[in-house]
Amino acid sequence: MTRDTRRRLTSGLLFVSPWVIGALVFSLYPIGMAVYYSFTDYDVLRKPVWVGSMNYREMVVDGVFWRALWNTMVYSLFAVPMSLGLSLVVAVLLNRPILGRSVFRTCYYIPAIVPLVAVGMIWIWLFNGDLGLINHALTLVGIEGPQWTGDPAWTKPMLIMSSVWQIGGSMVLFLAGLQDVPRSLYESADIDGAGPFNQFWHITVPVVSPVLYFNLIMGIIAGVQEFVKPFVMMPDGGPDRSALFYAVYIYQNAFQYSNMGYACAMAVVLFLIILGLTWAANRLVSRHVYYAGE
Amino acid sequence: MLTIGALVFLMPLAWMFVTAVKPAEQTMTMPPQWIPVSWDVAESGQTVFVHVDQQSYDAAVSAGDDSVEVNFAYQWVVDRGGDAVPVLVSDKVLNSTHKINAHWRSIAHDDRPVRILEPIEGIADEDLVRVYIYESEVMGFPHKVMRKDLVLHYDQTQRATQRSYSFAREIEVGMETLEKRYIAWDDRKRLAHTETEARFVSLESLRSSADVRWGNFGQAVEEMGQFPRYLSNTLILCVLTVGGTVFSSAVVAYGFSRIDWPGRDKIFVIVLATMMIPFPVTMVPLYGLFRELGWIGTLKPLWVPAFFASAFNVFLLRQFFRTIPKELSEAARIDGCNEWRIFWQIILPLAKPALTVVALFQFLATWNDYLGPLIYLTDQSDFTLALGLQFFQSQHGGTQWHLLMAASCLIVMPVLILFFMAQRTFVEGVSMSGLKG
């Protein structure tokens, strides 16, 4: 190693040292400890007691755990594709030269920056069974709206619908991605007589597929961790635990039942689920992702 | 179609705002009203705000009736030295004794409320009276004041009955001195000794006017209890986390982009990987760690980590630093600048747009954060706005929708104002965080 290389190594390491320390203390150490705690009985106040795989075995027979997992999966399965699809469609529509385009962009983007606690408050008011605006709108078209927060069958659809409101972030990403679509492609498609739907499916979607893929992964990661909105709207998990989310159940175990070991075991499983889903999405989608540069 | 969509997207925020400026009554109407209105009638020469059920009003109008049932609120008042003081009329029998809310105040002590500890009937003006003087509504300390410095006050509000220095006096008044005074319908819960009655009023004497209650915001602030504390805690956290993350992330991003050292790009992959770690996984061990440090119940767990760079911001700034030509650094190196000076005097000033983006998004993240404060903060006086709002909801939720929405507005508005001020930075920032580059 030359003197210059060594000099660059030391100064480089010095510059990245805040991150190294931060990653060790606030990421890697906690992950290691989470894995360790997941094999113990731990309540923060006393030293953890090694119990082997007991927490994991308990999880298998814990009906509430499966309930929370099911709720979270159902939510993600609907909310993530719906949000993605809608934000792509809105982005495509907003990419055309139309009057007041920037005003529209603002309208669609704004909900994404509203604090989640306030989002929860707003939706619980909109979905109020007796006084809510949504049930009123439903009565106008002759439907009697359900008690959204009181009926186990309707809590998840409520949360899924409200999640579609915050598509602003992915929409802006799609808009950025759409700038990469060469005009000439659409022009030649026009000459070949391809309709708008075909153009969307065969030109737009392939070109924005890297963004689509990025948004999908981020959506999955965020979806299975969903905490604030369900917790604010239904702190106890809703009727019949129909809105008890995985992350909420981890929180309950850790900070309400002082069952930190079990919470860590659930967290480890969550991590594995995220890794698995990301890997699956990668396998499934990457074959169809088109990178312009390659 | 886009227009309809945009309207649907704005509708929740609009509804939040409309609810926030409504009188409490009108949050409870079905069908919901978009424009808050108040109804008034002329009653013995004065305008009285009354309550009218929108549905029965509409029904009366469509049926061609000439009158509708209207709810009035009123008090019985007696005259005490020029003041109209509300009284509680016992048993609704108008000629018996009546209860009146009163408390003593001391002129000699800045008009502070006092509680008399010994009988004061028949004592001279210069005599001393033992009293409790109240600093606030509940904290009192013993003192002696002269009789002539004590004045009796009559309380108008309902809260007076809860104050520890207030008392109710039984007085006897003649039937003819009792006066029925109509009050605004919305005041009936605030004022003392209010009664309601319903009777039919002709449609033409009933008027409605738009009624925007800006006062709801003030009331929400008051009811949230420690709103100023919430706000200052949130702002302190915002300043510390924004400063911390901008500075530390820039330093680290410099190390990952402008200096070529062996193993750099391999380690950067780890930086990207840490972005995948879900917070629930590190939540419990971090709590344990901060507990060992004695940081639980303080703001420290929420801002100290910001000084150790965040993977996402490092990624973002690294992308930007890479677009700055290498020749700049090389020329500076030849001139004998060390790395720190190159970073501080050349790269950092050039990176202002990217640093603004990082600062903006960190501000939002801190302002909006809920889970962190929920876990680490224990004392109500340490709460942030987000946590304070949820705390307020858990206490008053389900009934006082107008106040809950007013409180929500107070949290949302600063974010929206910031957005309109820095709209371009927002959009650039989101695009920068994408896959490009």
TrEMBL record, chain A:
CDD domains per the UniProt record, alphabetical: TM_PBP2
InterPro entries named in the record: ABC_transporter_permease (IPR051393), MetI-like (IPR000515), MetI-like_sf (IPR035906)
Gene Ontology annotations for the cellular component aspect, listed alphabetically: plasma membrane
Pfam families the record matches: BPD_transp_1
PROSITE patterns for the chain: ABC_TM1
UniProt main location, coarse: membrane
Bilayer topology term: Multi-pass membrane protein
GO biological-process terms attached to the record: transmembrane transport
Keyword Transferase listed: no
Places the protein is found: Cell membrane
Transmembrane keyword on record: yes
Sorted UniProt keywords: Cell membrane, Membrane, Sugar transport, Transmembrane, Transmembrane helix, Transport
Family statement drawn from the similarity comment of this UniProt entry: Belongs to the binding-protein-dependent transport system permease family.
Protein name: Multiple sugar transport system permease protein
From TrEMBL, chain B:
Keyword RNA-binding: no
GO cellular component entries: plasma membrane
PROSITE patterns reported for this sequence: ABC_TM1
Biological process annotations from GO: transmembrane transport
A Pfam family of this chain: BPD_transp_1
Residue stretches making up the ABC transmembrane type-1 domain: 231-422
SUPFAM superfamilies assigned: MetI-like
Localization terms from the record: Cell membrane
Protein's recorded name: ABC-type glycerol-3-phosphate transport system permease component
Species this chain originates from: Algisphaera agarilytica
